[in-house]
Amino acid sequence: MNPDLRKLQTYPFEKLRQLMAGTTPNPDLNAIRLYIGEPQHATPAFIKEALIAGLDGLSSYPSTLGQPALRQAIADWMTRRYALDGIDPETGIIPVNGSREALFSFVQAVVDPSRGYVPLVVSPNPFYQIYEGGAYLAGADVRFLNSLRENDFAFDYASLSDEEWRRVQLLIVCSPANPTGKVLDLDDWKELFALSDKYGFVIASDECYSEIYFDEGRPPLGGLQAARLLGRNFDRLVMLSSLSKRSNVPGMRSGFVAGDAAILKDYLLYRTYHGSAMSPAFQTASIAAWRDEAHVVDNRAQYRAKFAAVTPLLQDVLGTSMPDASFYLWAKVPMADTEFARRLAADHNVHVLPGSFLARQAHGVNPGAGHVRIALVAPLAECLEAARRIQQFVTHL
Prior knowledge:
single chain, alpha/beta, Aspartate Aminotransferase, domain 1, Aspartate Aminotransferase, domain 2, 2 domains, 3-stranded antiparallel beta sheet, 42% helix
């Protein structure tokens, strides 16, 4: 077996299952599960109808590059969303089976272990665990940039030495961030691009939460959009996006990678061997989803209502505030995060994720410790009931 498999840590949700072993949730209360970022809003009917209409496509093998109509629908959406005129759907976009699969495989394709040193992949911390796993199984080591509340979740690039930066081949960012909701602004991107220019590494921008935001007039800035605004091309830059959160279709596993055409050409070769072509029926449904924006506006309105109802209640006891975007509250808790999550489940049958499970010890601290991630994915009434239970729990500690 690949010895690097031993570097993989237990997945956060398995850690949570182990933490809860032997814990009996309060049987007098219904369970409210806010620990996983799985959208629970209804999948729009027109997407289901498009999926059914596309079932005839099951009689043929799909192309790894996807249907031209799907790539065009994605290019059109990118033009509307980011004002990215000129995206070539032939060379600048690859449909993928969700951003998770693409993030993992992209690391494998980008990392070059033949340069006479152990390559590095830089990840935010806390982070989506796929970043770390992809790096280790590509033969790279990982360096973390901590996102700390006291620093407004900004990265401290000086925490890595010049020698480390020279070994960096890939830097992954997540904006809006999981779990903090932090959105990179144009100055942040300018600083990132300057580092990439100096050291020559690729930037992968995970933007799967980009369509969950609160001000219709201020959508989060994207990585490719930032490059254009700064007068740059897309050299050494790709973005990854997904329909899962935007369109409430996590089971469809549909997204895309876009950006540097030279990188995507080689990544497409990798994917041809990887056997990861998207189902023709899912491609048909994806075309319909990318072409419609009304359901996305409605989706945001539902999240906006939940944050408006829940945030003030939790602000009173946990000091939470609205994130820049995404559907998470990143809450500082008054005890060990694991103990908070375990006792909250036992006493009030509300299930949240300990922040330490989403982070690693780096630069002398685990930036997730003492926090919990609360995913406001359940219906409004459940989220509001959960907030009231959390409020009661903290008040009586």
